[in-house]
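Can anyone check this?
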Amino acid sequence: MKEILLKYMTEFTSLSEEEQRAIFDALQVEEYKKGTFLLQQGDLPVIKCYFVLKGCVRQFFVDEFGKEVTTNFFTEEQAIPIFNDQRRDEFSKYSYACLEDSTLVVGEPDSEQVMYKTYSQLETMTRKMMEINLSEVQDEFAEFIKSSPEERYKSIVKKCPQLVHRVPQHQLASFLGITPESLSRIKKRIEKEK
């Protein structure tokens, strides 16, 4: 799994193999069982950032009617930022739960700052990765807003086909902003078109 991180280090830095090895050794990599919560809605936020090496994490909240609303899924090679230094005393609006057994790199501000001081290129790499992620999120959000539910589903199938089989259909429907029954009809209609 370190190959995933090596890919980014090679692409965004000129760190030597020795420096890369030292960074790997210093990283905190944790394994989480399916069903584990990284953070629950209503808790004081933990100031952390995760990077998915393996697995799937769902971001969701429970609305005022007690209904779970899925707002995102994070899979391999995606960052999960759970922090806000300006609002440390506010309760989390979201829950983050592992939908599969997951292996995550866990970043904490204090340890990250030490790493950035030691390896300045690492901070540049992190910034570039976050810029790419932010750009993708903005594009996906704009696309989501202007798309019909069927177009949203087709987009997921095209961009992340394995997600359709990895997450429960009622959670996928919630993410798409439709009912599970509507999702079922969309899937049948698309299947007929093939």
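Reply from J.R.: I decoded it. The domain at 2-145 is CATH 2.60.120.10 (Jelly Rolls).
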